[in-house]
Amino acid sequence: MLRIDREIVEAIVAHARRDHPDEACGVVAGPAGSDTPTRLIPMDNAERSSTFYRFDSMEQLRVWREMDERDEEPVVIYHSHTATEAVPSRTDVNLAAEPAAHYLLVSTREPDATEIRSFRIVDGVVTEEPVRVVVAGVDGTAVQSYKFGHTPTMVDYECRA
Amino acid sequence: MSVDVRVPTILRSYTGGAKTVPGTGDTLAGLLADLETRHPGLRGRLVTEEGALHRFVNVYVNDEDVRFLGALEAKLSAGDTVTVLPAVAGGAGQASGASEALAGSASPAGG
């Protein structure tokens, strides 16, 4: 299960909306071994593409070094799909190289609602996991999929579990 | 030419779990050949059968991406740090060359 602060999720959704129709991507770092994402780092999509993303190699080096120095690791790696559902594509699975990370996918294909789902991708095997969005230290209910509306006051979500 | 090589999590199975290993070589190609003698299999995760650097692996000498330094011919000096990072990439569409992934080379996805 992925536990993540609602503020961080909303910032990820805002990033994905801002970059739409291009795919957006980034990392949420957290203390090594904690499995807790705490520091959002939106990354440039060096591909600037609606069907592909890749972290800029120099930005990635700088961010990975910074995480090392702070004794952090990439707890969440996120990216958006802008015309398809929030499920890893074959490309996503082939290229997933962080077996300890939660791969968070955001779909911006619908203009009024944003879907987020989380997966583990280890040795080519994809496992979906529930997402628990935490609000100000209070746990929400774990659900399989959240749908975020456009405005923060109009957040709604849908449970598939 | 002794250099330090920083190894990403996904490749530490080749280094007995070590984050950093020492190596020698005048070029990146020489260094990878040297590492292969102590860490068999590692080179094959970084270099294609045709002898080029895998497209979805980033290798840096100090602060520079080796793609701008001559790739496998990049020159090394004593005290350099070589960092290997798997590219973070993907997306909804098909990427040409995605089969050259660092992750995928261990367990190639069929088709």
Topology:
The complex is a heterodimer of chains A (161) and B (111).
Chain A: E1 2-5, H1 6-19, E2 25-31, E3 39-43, E4 53-54, H2 57-69, E5 72-81, H3 90-95, E6 102-107, E7 113-122, E8 125-129, E9 131-135, E10 138-139, E11 146-149
Parallel strand pairs in A: 1-9, 5-6
Antiparallel strand pairs in A: 2-3, 2-5, 6-7, 7-8, 7-11, 9-10
Chain B: E1 2-6, E2 20-24, H1 28-38, H2 42-46, E3 57-61, E4 64-65, E5 81-86, E6 89-90
Parallel strand pairs in B: 1-5
Antiparallel strand pairs in B: 1-2, 3-4, 3-5
Q: Would you give an account of this structure?
A:
With 161 residues, chain A is α+β, with helices and mostly antiparallel strands. Chain A has a single domain, classed as Cytidine Deaminase, domain 2 (3-Layer(aba) Sandwich). Chain A has helices at 6-19, 57-69, 90-95; strands at residues 2-5, 25-31, 39-43, 53-54, 72-81, 102-107, 113-122, 125-129, 131-135, 138-139, 146-149. In chain A, the strands form 2 sheets. In chain A, strands 2, 3, 5, 6, 7, 8 and 11 form a 7-stranded mixed β-sheet that branches. Chain A has a 3-stranded mixed β-sheet with strand order 1-9-10. Chain A starts with a strand and ends in a 12-residue tail after the last strand. By secondary structure, chain B is an alpha+beta fold. Chain B has one domain (2-89): Ubiquitin-like (UB roll) (Roll), CATH 3.10.20. Helices cover 14% and strands 23% of the residues of chain B. Chain B has 2 helices and 6 strands, in the order E-E-H-H-E-E-E-E. Chain B has helices at residues 28-38, 42-46, and strands at residues 2-6, 20-24, 57-61, 64-65, 81-86, 89-90. Chain B has a 5-stranded mixed β-sheet with strand order 2-1-5-3-4, covered by helices on one side. At the A-B interface, strand 4, helix 2, strand 5 and helix 3 of A face strand 5 and strand 6 of B.
